Amino acid sequence: xxxxxxxxxxxxxxxxxxxxxxxxxxxxxxxxxxxxxxxxxxxxxxxxxxxxxxxxxxxxxxxxxxxxxxxxxxxxxxxxxxxxxxxxxxxxxxxxxxxxxxxxxxxxxxxxxxxxxxxxxxxxxxxxxxxxxxxxxxxxxxxxxxxxxxxxxxxxxxxxxxxxxxxxxxxxxxxxxxxxxxxxxxxxxxxxxxxxxxxxxxxxxxxxxxxxxxxxxxxxxxxxxxxxxxxxxxxxxxxxxxxxxxxxxxxxxxxxxxxxxxxxxxxxxxxxxxxxxxxxxxxxxxxxxxxxxxxxxxxxxxxxxxxxxxxxxxxxxxxxxxxxxxxxxxxxxxxxxxxxxxxxxxxxxxxxxxxxxxxxxxxxxxxxx
Length: 369
Description:
Helix content: 55-70%
Strand order of the largest sheet: 2-1-8-7-6-5-4-3
Number of domains: 1
Radius of gyration: 20 Å
Distance between the termini: 50 Å
């Protein structure tokens, strides 16, 4: 059988993960097939994905009936439903993790309504890790300012974390610092950093969506020429910082103790603008020690016509630095773009979580009937 495009991508050091999970794809063998045929070695999920999975079809009805006699809180019912899917996926990926400890991970997200509550987020993350005590579980925490403290605390307690909703370079630097401080605290307390793995989920396509909207409003020739460029440049500059941060003397000390670098994970990699190449956020961000988490349509598209051209994530770094200045010159405030995206991202996840709980309630009524 000819080597697929995603297998070629994997050979360049890019871990192929998917950004969704459902009981149907587990029970019908779809995830196992993707592991074989699409080089998939991990997955993430979020409340929006679970909301769709639970509300559609009847895959969860039997377990819901079992839970109705034991639990009234819709959040706890959701956690029980999602825990079964997460545990099944963890088991499926366990051999991957044993062979390549940086992969084989499944993410389970902290209640996003806690995004601005450091102590609440930390407590919930520790609860989820205790609930499913598996070495290849990532608990997902948003990279809000209060979230940074919770991330550091979890790392200091030896827990693996997927840091999500990163949009700005400044916030990404803060995330890296929180990870390193957490590891330093863990080592100082006699813990083993080798068991801790983390990814920094840097969101991509949404950056172009917001920046392009502002460039269209400005409407000048100079502004319109900058459309579709910020997302890739932003991610490339993040990767540049990744290379620097995980090679300096401070990191070498931690690496000597067995610590693992916190890899960049490119999230939101489906192309929102149909005028752009549908695999651009995969093709243009190829590099060693990275993860690209893709939706189903991007997996299919890349397998069909994706091109693996080398370490593209390190291309045109000088142009990436200059782009930020060009955006400022035409009137686009980079800091305001990324701050807006973070606020909207947290709000959307929180709203999805509320809809999910409403969906659980609705499902309960249907199952009862």
